[in-house]
Amino acid sequence: MADFLTEEHISKQLLEGIAAYKKKYPSNADAVRPKYPYYGRKIWEEAISAVLSGANLLLEGPKATGKNVLAENLAYVFNRPSWDISFHINIDASYLIGTDTFDGSKVVFRKGPVVLCAENGGFGILDEINMAKNEALVVLHEILDYRHTISIPGYGSIDVNPATRFLATMNYGYAGTRELNEALASRFVIISMPQISMENLERLLLYTFPSLKPKWMEQFALLFEDLRKKVEAAEISQHAVDLRGFLDAIRLMQNGLAPSEALEMGITNKSFDSCERRLIDDVIQSRIPETLESRSLFG
Amino acid sequence: MKKYLYTTVQRRALNIIWDAAGNYDYAPPFVAFNPHGEPEYYLDFIIGLSDKWFDSEKLLKFFKSYSGTIHRKVFDNITWLALENSLYEKELPRRPALKVMREKHARAFFEEETTMSRQEWMAKNNLLYSLLSDRWALVLGRKSPVLSPREKRISKKLRAGGTLDTDGLIATMRSIFQEDFLFSHFTGYPEEFTFHFRGVLARMLSRFSNCEISRTNFLNLPSSHAGEGSGAYHSKGLARRHEAADQNTIESCFGQSLYHQAERILLEHNLCTEGDRGCHLWYARGVPDSRSAKTPEAKGMAQDAEKQYQKNLAFYQAYRDRNQSTIRELKTQILNTVNQHSEPASIAARSGRLNSSSVWRAPVLHSSRIFERCVPEPQPNISVLLLLDASASRLGAQETIASQAYMISESLRLCRIPVEVDAFRTFRGFTVFQVLKSYREENSRGVFRYFSAGWNRDGLAMKAAEIRLKDSETSSRFLLVLTDANPNDSEPLQPSSGRPFPMDYSGSAGIAETARAVKNLKAGGVRISAVFLGEDSEVRNAEKIYSDGFVRIHKTDEISKAVGKLLQDNIALLS
Q: In this complex, which of B12, B332, B333 lies closest to A282 when CB atoms are compared?
């Protein structure tokens, strides 16, 4: 991964900072290698600086901007175990911190993901943090601010391992989301995630599908760009701009499914509006011919 | 460009053009449809590409330069043939799919040929037809049709290369027009063509062989005629009629009162007080019916109402896809709001999360019910009354209001939130509540019965709405008003405390009276918000009446966001 960061032209000072951090906080557990690399020097540098300075990071941005990918990449670069905590409407403090349980003879405390992460100096990825009710998030305040402790009623308090960092993601305005409590937001430094650029999308495609022919790689990247423009013009909803679905569709093609069918499964059918599907189909048709066979794509 | 005014088919054609242009602000001067009325995919794409590769302004000037002449149709089409070839060559290296699109279009051309009658063949312009046949045969690698020397010459010139720029292409076309059509009068009559989208895509103006590519010299969206039927119901000089006769007319127009006479009089006694003294109330579920109308006035109103019903339905149907999308979006938004503010309840269970305070039950009582399970809270105990201003001031926007109200009502109904939709208007001293959809009805179709007539005594309507709010069995009630915040009635405000003389029920007096009624309703625990549909000059009125409890919208597309926001705020306050 160090090579990758060098290729991304990350500043030498930050690379040295990462090395120093790893030396200071050696980890026994191997960090999980992320499925996709994150491309974008500016964001990388901002994120690395935040982690090195001990700040918690909030990655804010619309769909398909690589928020989770960056979070996983950071955990890997700093060689820390990560805890992925998906937030939802019914999440509460006990889900995050832990709860009592019965071991057959007595009541004991069963640690939640936040406590485990804090004890082990992990990177806690708080996914879609603004999906949860603000009342449930109050327990995070003392962990995230200067106190770095977790108070557990009846069990005392736990000091947060200094290697621990919390990386939250949120998509403001996503269906089901809410305004983030100001007190919580103030405990993060915030990176506004940009849309993946054409160049980086092509790099991602090349990394994920090395055998995809350059001619079609460009067309897929342009297709994604065309769909994004349509969303920006409010002609279609965000459903179609789904990078995961887009990559899944190409994976289906790699396994022999016809491109038109794969794109239908990965992109078009994400919309449940027939009129919108037609508009998405029209865009796809202008980039990927209906008659194209999957075997012509790879080689 | 008012994008929201297009039908589904028009929107698709425009999207194809915008997609190709990569510019969603482009107002194309042409659009292409096939004989079945569907967008002609390839040609629309070419129209879009013309904006990407050429200077659209210069091209427009060129199209205008011969627009008033008899050659316009032919010139338009052969210019597009030249553009097609040049654009194809320019775009192909960047878009391999274009080849397939072009060939598909060419095949469709010859397939259509086999289905055309002899008369249709004859109706075609021979020159154009020959040029098209030659072009598409070439694309498919087929043998070219037999062409005259002139046709051959023009066809060859129209194979404009991909290296041409705008000036080069225009120069080529000018030379074709001059040499092969002996045309040199390039002044045109530009005043005939606006070359701008103003509303819906309108009539086809020229033929492009088996498809139609038309100039977008468009009309505005037809709307209700502002004056239609208004005179009879909207005259400030209308004298107060005899009460009994008026009641007959009201009953004839809107049907029987929902409340018995004694109940109704009691309601009037309680609600028509102070400035509203002497006014009357009428709550009805009826629909004006010309067959049973007892008076000519009622008959006329019934006929107008029926016409408006058909217009409302047609208007909704014309934009059905978009409207259904809005309903889905609004429904999701409401459900999200409801879910976010519902607290799941915990119940004792045999599995789930351990309840430490119940653990003792296991060893002592041998009970396994020591866990907790979360069950979602039942639907919030909330109902919505949607109140529509149905005065004559809304004549120009009846279809829009009916569509908006239908979408709100359907979205709430789909979320299983009881909703009633009432239209209110004041007519002959009676403030009439027409129940278009009741809380218990399973569909919102009745909302299309909305029509506007008469005055709007908003203050009294607000007071009277309380009665309909109580008809719901929920503990929390939310009143949502679609209004222009411009109260106006022919009956004056009666003298009361602080007002020694009667005053006109309009302007600041009407606003103050309505604001007071809204304040009283709020004090009674009713949540009240307004969706404001009025003009800039009336925003202050809305502020005075509803303070910050209103959202202004300019077009139907904004309705879901506006109503969603209001519901979100109000449901949040309930939790």
A: B12
Distances (CA, A) of B171 to B57, B82, B160, B178: 15, 12, 11, 10
pLDDT exceeds 90 at position A267: yes
Q: How many CA atoms lie within 13 A of A70 on its CB side?
A: 34
Say yes or no: B525 contacts chain A, CB-CB below 8 A.
no
Where do the structural domains in chain A lie, given as residue ranges? 2-192, 198-296
B359 touches A: beta carbon within 8 Å: yes
Considering only CB atoms, which chain B residues are within 8 Å of A278?
Answer: 12
Query: Given an 8 Å threshold on Cβ–Cβ distance, is A276 in contact with B325?
Result: yes
Higher-pLDDT residue of A207 and B428 is A207
**What Cα–Cα distance (Å) separates residue B368 from each residue in B88, B351, B359, B360?**
75, 8, 9, 10
Chain A contact present for B325, CB below 8 A: yes
Instruction: Name chain B contacts of A272, Cβ cutoff 8 Å.
Output: 328
| pLDDT number for residue B234 | 33
pLDDT digits (tens, 9 = 90+) for B372-405: 877 665 566 788 999 998 888 777 788 888 888 8
Report how far residue B558's alpha carbon sits from residue B573's, in angstroms, rounded to the nearest whole number. Answer: 23
Structural domains present in chain B: 3-215 (no CATH), 245-333+380-574 (3.40.50.410), 343-375 (no CATH)
* B229 has a pLDDT exceeding 50: no
Are B75 and B66 in contact by the 8 Å Cβ rule? The answer is: yes
pLDDT tens, A9-68?
999 999 999 999 999 999 877 778 898 999 999 999 999 999 999 999 999 988 878 999
| Percent of residues, chain B, with pLDDT higher than 70 | 83
Residue type, position A37, single letter:
P
In this structure, are residues A283 and B17 in contact, taking their beta carbons and an 8 Å threshold? Answer: no
Full DSSP string of B15-33: HHHHHHHT-TT---SEEEE
- Chain B residue nearest residue A282, CA to CA: B16
Lowest mean pLDDT among A193-207, A275-289, B304-318, B524-538: B524-538
Q: Which residues of B touch A107 (CB under 8 A)?
A: 354, 356, 359
Chain B residue closest in CA terms to A134: B340
Query: CB contact, 8 Å: B321 with chain A?
Result: yes
Name, in order, each residue with C-beta under 8 angstroms of A196's C-beta and a sequence gap of 6 or more: A39, A40, A64, A65, A66, A204, A243
Q: If contacts are CB pairs under 8 Å, which of residues 373-392 in chain B contact chain A?
A: 374
Is A101 a residue whose pLDDT tops 80? no
Number of inter-chain CB pairs under 8 A, A vs B: 98
Strand partners, B389: B424
Question: Is B8 an 8 Å CB contact of chain A?
Answer: yes
Percent of chain A whose pLDDT exceeds 70: 97
The model's pTM: 0.62
Average pLDDT, chain B: 79
Q: Which residues of B are less than 8 Å from A90 in CB distance?
A: 344, 374
Pick the CATH number of A2-192 from 2.160.10.10, 3.40.50.280, 3.40.50.300, 3.40.640.10: 3.40.50.300
pLDDT of residue B226: 31
